[in-house]
Amino acid sequence: MTLEKLKLSGLAAALATSLFVFGSPNYAAGAEDPSIRPFKVQIPQAALDDLRRRINATRWPDKETVADQSQGAQLARLQELVRYWGKGYDWRKLEAKLNALPQFKTTIDGRGDSFHPRPVAS
Nearest-CA neighbor of 4 among 68, 95, 81? Predict the structure, then answer.
């Protein structure tokens, strides 16, 4: 898989949602409210700054001792991907993309959930 394919994957949306949406204080507000409410992703700049700081502080292992992936992902590829996430990825662009969709939140079984409706196939 090329780095370009990794960049374009849906992993970005899943990661952003799990890191920022479910963990944000605004998301927890109204956690006992079972009504369905409109929702917009609002990633705090401080959270993005902290994420970039942690990404840039990654402590890397020694380079693998084989040329194939038998010891796991290749260090150089991981470093390239992490460098992209830390410096090149446009989180605000993702936020705008997510917010272009109708999104809602509610509480199900005491847990806050967010969702967006999908068209019903006819």
Answer: 81
Give me the amino acid identity at 88.
Answer: G
On whether residue 35 sits in a domain, the answer given is no
> pLDDT tens across 35-81, in order?
888 989 899 999 999 999 999 999 999 998 998 889 888 999 999 99
Domain extent, residue 18, equals: 3-27+40-60+72-115
CA angle 31, 37, 43 (to 5 degrees): 70
Give the span between the Cα atoms of 97 and 13, in whole angstroms. 9
120 belongs to a structural domain: no
Start-end of H helices in 1-122: 3-8, 11-16, 25-28, 45-56, 75-83, 91-99
- As a whole number of angstroms, the distance between CA 85 and CA 110 comes to 33
Q: Rg for the chain (alpha carbons), in Å? A: 18
